[in-house]
Structures are given as C-alpha cells and as structure tokens.
Amino acid sequence: MRRKKLLLSIILLASCFFIAITLIVFIPLKLAIVFQPFHSYAKLAYIPLKGESEFQIKYTHSIHLTDVVESYKITTSQQIQQYELMYEDFSIGMPSNAEVGETFEQQNGKYYIKNMKRVFPYFYLRIGQVRANHRVIFQSNEYPLSRAIKPGTSVKVEVRKITFFQQWKGVNILESL
Asked: CB of 136 within 8 A of CB of 110?
C-alpha cells in the first residue's frame, strides 16, 4: 500500500513537472518584432523587445538606386505605426507629397514625410535578391536582413509574443551579425 502511494506521488510529480516544462516552452511569453516567412519550412526571424518601441526598415530603391528609410513605432496595442518616410529621389514608386495631416520636408537633399499615423497590425515585405539590401535599424544599429532571411523570401512583419521554442528554432536578428 505504501509503495503504491509512493509510486502514485512520483507519477503525479513527474506529470506536474512535464506539464510545467511544456507550458514554459510552448506558451508565448517574449514580445518581439517577428519576420515570419510564408513558407512553413523557413525559420522565423525576430528582434526581442525589452521596452523598445521604434525600428526602421532601410533599403535601396530598385530604380533610382538610393536609400529609402521607413520609420516605425510600436503602439501600446502592439500594432505597427509608420511615422516617417525618408527618400532621396522622386522617381517611380515614391510619393510626391504628404497625405492629409502629414508634413513634407526637404532637408540636405533628402525628402521626408513626417507626422505619419499609418497603423497596421502587420505588413508584408519581400527581402530583396538583387539591389534592395533590406536592413532593419534597431537601437541605432543596422542589421542586414539577408543574414537571417534568405533573399527573395516574403515575410509578414508583426509585433507579437513568441514561445521559447520559437526563439530556440528561429533566428535572433540581433545576433546575426
């Protein structure tokens, strides 16, 4: 009888331990900017957040071959707000003026659209294969996305919590230099 109670206690303790480990590994806890590839076999890439709320996407425009910088901040509801756009040429694909409520400025040969309030739950990005050289700027450091994500890959960019397992299987962009 005593042996059965001991065995039952060990099984119960082991079950609780297994459930606790499973919850820790598979419950989303870590807030991150996530670059989720459309292909299920490709690893997600992420930037872990610890209170930071701004990042930028920088790329070389395919036609006029100058840099474009899109500036974003993370809202309190974990959405993405584009607040600024900087570019150097009015060529094809670039805006010629600001929308209502936004401001258009020219400084040092560059054009800025500021005061943007464009909010998205997510947006899509295709990592350039030839000229674009997409980079993410985070905490004043520039990280080439092609080091973490295969060029030509389409990704969904969003802010969300990820699991320990996703962190372990994915690529931390801040560690990909």
From this structure: no
